[in-house]
């Protein structure tokens, strides 16, 4: 056993067999030694293509000595075996931690927008990839997360991924990562858990059985079911969507997030509403990313966390310049006034004269001071519907004790009972508006209708089909509470399919966060208007999103009354609509307007201000000045940049993934029944590839019978067309998958190429060189098993050439146009030189060790300085009464971060590998 890390791509010997390292991760144990978990794929005869996991504390793992490399002549046409092998090694070798450029940004099924790539750059530039993406609704946070995960996978730091989302967006998130990036996630919702329990052994930790998982926050916080499993797990990357739901130290969600933050390298948080207006609780969230980011939770600035936080709005210049016609400007929020019917006027009168009169009422208020907000609950219920009011009154009657309140409630109960559907001005206006928009038996137009009330949603779902002359299944509803996650997934999916019968989706605010409803819809109607600018904006964001093809159109039903002193929808709702629209156009967001930062708090403060006699305008004008939390809702973490994000130095021998994969399949005869029409590849996946497909989304596998016949393409236009067509069918999953660099097929082909070369062998290639050139890979790693330096060296008897290996290969005309005559090469002289050449490469790396270390250590030392400053500021700010426990927490944090910094430094000697030897034609002629 050894304390040396095993870099991906290295060949190792375990249990008398040869393996190729896929990943290497440090495992924490109680002793002082370094222990590693090594995943590998078999390379020697009896284990070829087998996947295995080894632990250094259990197995003797030996790195194969480069000096013992055996040279062999490549006799394949065009030196295919050698070229494919070199390309596979280049692909499989992770980029070093000093490489912060993007390697895969242009390889996926999405528009290459620089603003969506910026978060990946920021994450890679950080000490660890930890970031809060706080872009406003609709800018594409899921795509930004996908780009970061892709770059981490390319660096060998994304093998084990956990994505945590609200349950209503589970499938949407899973769908985006697979169809856009070819990153498969196993879904652990109620259906997924049931399926997995059938597949894995009883009592087995599901988080070890699958390496990339997506699960809802509410499922995961079940401590009894998953707590013990999570405590034993370490992750390469954890993603938490809608992370504002974590805020609050006592919540189970917060406890779960803090556990995950401790047990992952990369932590990606995402939320369009990143904080709740409390600087202390937001500081706590930021400390999950970096425990030493904020010294004083009540006194910090946006610039203090700019390295961990990024936020853009639609008004940012880079965003505006790049989205172009991909996101039309939203239309105005149009108030649709509905004059109350006589029956409704009676209810308005009762609410105005009895419930909202307060001290002005003869006999005093109906309710005491403790319940002084309740009259507004009644008003808001009625402004939603008589059904909602009836439910609110019935619920209150169950607990009311004061005779005058009970009497007033019974009066409202009676008045409400006298109202039927024909007495609802809003219902009539809704039907008229829907018809005006174009909803009808022969139309494909779709509309989403929002209401705060479950009773209102249920009622509209019942009455609208008849009033619109639509079949019952043309109007769908989404409630959230009481609906299983699978039912919610199905409803959202149906609304997004163009051949679905659904024309109207009536929903509560359960869909106002994170759910995409813009695929087939650009019309939204507020049946009732939330008394919160944030909630209005969140609702509008469901159809006002990137990739919306048509101008988003918004209408709001405004119930009006002639009762003197009445508070109808003109009093609050209409004014909030105007304010939200103005803020959105000028600032890009309305979240900071009130300074409350949470929908519930906005509504509560507004009602309290109304009770105090203020107008809505006066309430909205009151906001703190110089508020750091307001600053965080502007643009943060983005400098004025004209250039596109930098690209990584990731050498390749083949000009594209397509040419590499197709030549590999042809040369190695991997797919016997392959059909290739130039665009589409179709074939029966071999058993070992089928095994890898088990990690793909189950719905995709089942719907298209992928295990029986696999259809894939490198053609971006075809893949995009098939993705669009999938929304016209009964599934969101396209039958033809796009082959990005991360697709399991590409991964499988790469492994097949690597294991075809003999045990610890290197090919000899005849090329356009003047003397034998040995191609050698050199890797320095840190104690975490992550490469810190990767060098691709071309070595002759005189030493390492200044020409980079990739450039030398091009100059030597190593490519598909090569001709292999098969003439025998005398390998003995070349074989004899291997030890000396390896020593030259080792000396070269050691001579540059100081240069390498300086580059690796510079960002680590910067952080050490910040850590020291944080420690001093934190301790200086402590009152004597707070010392003790707090001082110990600070010391523990500093020690933990210092251990991390030490582990990230280059550790040990370089690991070398002889890849190939280029010889001139005259060598082959001897």
Q: Could you describe the 3D structure shown?
A:
By secondary structure, the protein is an alpha/beta fold. Helix content is 40%, strand content 16%. The protein contains 33 helices and 28 strands. The strands form five sheets. A seven-stranded parallel β-sheet has the order 9-10-8-11-12-7-13, sandwiched between helices. It has a six-stranded mixed β-sheet with strand order 6-24-28-25-26-27, with helices on both faces. Helix 1 (80-92) crosses helix 24 (657-668) and helix 13 (374-384) packs antiparallel against helix 14 (386-397). The longest helix has 28 residues, at 849-876. The protein is elongated and about 110 Å long. The chain starts with 10 loop residues before the first strand and ends with a helix. The relative contact order is 0.13.
| Net shape | elongated
Strand content: 15-25%
Provide the spatial order of strands within the biggest beta sheet: 9-10-8-11-12-7-13
Number of strands: 28
Number of helical segments with 4 or more residues: 33
In short, what is this structure?
With 926 residues, the protein is of the alpha/beta class.
Kindly list the characteristics that best describe this protein.
alpha/beta, 40% helix, 28 strands, elongated
Compile the SSE list and pairings.
Layout: E1 11-14, E2 17-27, E3 35-42, E4 51-55, E5 62-63, E6 70-73, H1 80-92, H2 114-125, E7 130-133, H3 141-154, E8 161-165, H4 170-181, E9 186-187, H5 190-199, H6 206-209, E10 212-216, H7 217-220, H8 223-231, E11 235-241, H9 252-262, E12 264-270, H10 279-289, E13 309-310, H11 317-323, E14 333-339, H12 342-355, H13 374-384, H14 386-397, H15 403-417, H16 425-437, E15 447-450, H17 454-468, E16 475-478, H18 485-496, E17 504-507, E18 523-526, H19 533-540, E19 553-560, H20 573-587, H21 599-611, H22 616-621, H23 628-631, H24 657-668, E20 675-676, E21 680-683, H25 687-693, H26 698-704, E22 710-713, H27 716-726, E23 737-738, H28 744-756, E24 761-766, E25 773-782, E26 787-796, E27 799-800, H29 805-811, H30 828-847, H31 849-876, H32 885-904, E28 906-919, H33 921-925
Parallel strand pairs: 6-24, 7-12, 7-13, 8-10, 8-11, 9-10, 11-12, 14-19, 15-17, 15-18, 16-17, 18-19, 22-23, 24-28
Antiparallel strand pairs: 1-2, 1-5, 2-3, 3-4, 20-21, 21-22, 25-26, 25-28, 26-27
Helix pairs in contact: 1-24, 1-28, 2-3, 3-4, 12-13, 12-15, 13-14, 14-15, 14-17, 16-17, 19-20, 24-28, 31-32
